[in-house]
Specification:
The structure is a single chain. By secondary structure, the protein is an all-alpha fold. The protein is built from 21 helices and two strands. Strands 1-2 form a two-stranded antiparallel sheet. 49% of the residues are buried.
Length: 481
């Protein structure tokens, strides 16, 4: 394996991360907030210096990456960014490296689980850094899901390979123009979200932070009460709208903002996602109205925000929905698995895999009735071949197996069943809060033992990188010449 191109790219990423570390420093200067000078001056210097070292020492004349190097680069880049992204947390909040790495991994994977408390009175620079990690992880995963994962044949995502070639400028390299246009839409939506939050009643600082956390479907807030800190329905519906937009395929959003909205509304994923949301909103709103004192609009607001937050794997909490009763708790747990669309910022299983599973089940039932018949399967007008089916089955199998293994490991550390199970699911699905008194919507992950935090951090990484991308590094075939 040729490690030089891998380390060269990681050096560039660390140099970019160091530049982004200056944003919290500028935030503190603008707000005239004192902070530990080590946090936002030494941290970027260390990160930039290490990045320059890798960049200069591993520069190659002819740059090229094979599939094995891309697997290594994908995994190593996220781990290295998390390690150096943990430095400001260590210097400013004086937490352990375990907690800092957990917070950094949760931020960059847009999971939203946190070990920090007292957010309402915390240094603004640290709050801004958490949001920057979310925003960076969100755009990073979009580009990876569109340009890298289909190439690696991971989890059935080859289905969406043609989406990135229909509209690209032939005069430019395809991946370059795709990334450029996605970043433009991502920036524009982030700015619109921040403006809407500000007009809804947030301060400029709160609006910028929550906009980055909303569109990236991350879930970090500037308050321990999360979105429950704000009692404005305008803010709540703004969050619902932009969490929904963050759950849609960004390639199709690029087309839509270019004037071609038809592919967005005709896409099977989008139609399935919006239909599922409509069914859940109407069902749970009627149930909440009948079992509580909320009027219809209040119930709809609470249901729409909280269910969209969980399905999109954002993790914002408007209220403690675990107090709504057994039906609500069960429904929210099942929603944890769903996720949004492929090519979005969301985690989870993704809508297209549920749709693939239903198509496979339908064909299997038909085959039982007509053994000699030949049935073909299509998705979004594309044939579903055996490679896609194998990737789909492998992802689903290992996704569930990992949840079981992580649940057992967390139980061995003394955690109760609800905390162990929902903690595993929320880590691998990149949702944020779990269920129960410890890691539920009203709690956080600080009380967990250090080893449990490392297990959950590993789960966040595997969930963000579609499981198979990580597991392939642990096979003998990968390392064999």
């Amino acid at each position: 394996m040729n490690y030089k191109p891998v380390l060269y790219v990681i050096g560039l990423l660390l140099m970019t991360l160091a530049v982004l570390m200056c944003i919290p420093l500028i935030t503190n200067l603008i707000l005239d907030t004192p902070s530990d000078p080590m946090a936002f001056t030494l941290s970027p210097l260390i990160t930039f210096g290490f990045g320059v070292l890798l960049w200069r020492s591993c520069k190659v004349e002819f740059f090229g990456l094979r599939s094995r190097e891309i697997f290594m680069l994908t995994n190593l880049s996220w781990v290295m960014v998390c390690m150096f992204g943990a430095l400001p947390f260590i210097f400013e909040t004086n937490i352990s490296f375990t907690d800092a790495f957990f917070e950094s991994m949760s931020g960059i994977t847009t999971t939203g689980s946190t070990v920090l408390t007292g957010l309402d009175h915390m240094n603004p620079g640290i709050l801004m850094w958490r949001s920057v990690l979310h925003w960076l992880g969100g755009i990073g995963f979009i580009v990876m899901a569109v340009a890298v994962l289909p190439f690696l044949k991971v989890g059935g995502m080859r289905l969406f390979q043609s989406e990135s070639s229909d509209w690209s400028d032939k005069a430019m390299p395809r991946s370059e123009v795709i990334a450029k246009r996605i970043v433009q839409v991502y920036l524009g939506l982030s700015a619109l979200c921040a403006l809407a939050y500000y007009l809804g009643g947030m301060t400029i600082f709160e609006a910028i932070n929550h906009a980055m956390a909303t569109l990236s479907t991350g879930g970090f807030s500037t308050s321990d009460a999360s979105m429950g800190h704000f009692d404005s329905p305008a803010i709540h519906w703004t969050g619902t709208l932009f969490m929904l937009l963050g759950s849609l395929p960004f390639v199709l959003l690029v087309r839509a903002f270019s004037g071609n909205t038809e592919p967005l509304w005709r896409d099977s994923q989008v139609k399935g996602f919006l239909t599922l949301l409509a069914v859940i909103w109407s069902t749970m709103t009627l149930w909440l109205v009948m079992t509580s004192d909320y009027d219809f609009f209040k119930a709809l607001t609470l249901v729409a925000f909280n269910t969209t937050s969980v399905i999109s794997t954002t993790g914002f909490a408007l209220t403690d929905y675990s107090l709504w009763g057994g039906f609500a708790v069960t429904a929210f747990f099942l929603m944890t698995f769903v996720g949004g669309c492929s090519g979005s910022t969301t985690g989870g299983v993704k809508i297209f895999r549920f749709q693939l599973g239903l198509r496979l089940l339908n064909v299997q039932l038909k085959q039982l009735s007509h053994p000699r018949a030949c049935f073909s399967m299509q998705y979004n007008g594309q044939p579903i071949n055996s490679d896609i089916i194998r990737s789909f089955v492998a992802f689903t199998f290992f996704f569930l197996i990992l949840i079981g293994i992580m649940t057992l490991l967390l139980s061995l550390m003394g955690l109760d069943f609800i905390t162990s199970l929902t903690g595993s699911v929320t880590a691998i699905a990149n949702v944020g809060p779990g269920l129960g008194n410890v890691i539920g919507p009203a709690g956080n992950f600080a009380p967990l033992p250090d080893m449990a935090k490392w297990v959950l951090a590993a789960g966040m990484l595997m969930g963000r990188l579609e499981v198979i991308t990580v597991l392939v590094l642990f096979t003998s075939a990968y390392w064999r010449r």
